[in-house]
Amino acid sequence: MIDLLGRDNCLKEAFRLVHSMPMEPNVVIWGTILEACRIHNDLELVEEALDLLVKLDPSNPGNFSIVSNLYATAGD
User: Fold this and answer.
1) Predicted structure pTM score
2) What top-level branch of life does the organism fall under (predicted)?
């Protein structure tokens, strides 16, 4: 469901769903949110997704690469 909402550019709705889940979201869920932020160039939500993803998987440099490319595309 998170992936479908992300693909449809309903990122805020996807975030609400993640935060209302009865279980703790894992790396796959936050990675899906991060990728949806990249696809739709959503700089507003990418930082929250990255912060939570780094807490769960700090040794994955791919997450930083995605965010770096997103900011580069935005001109930051």
Assistant:
1) 0.83
2) Eukaryota
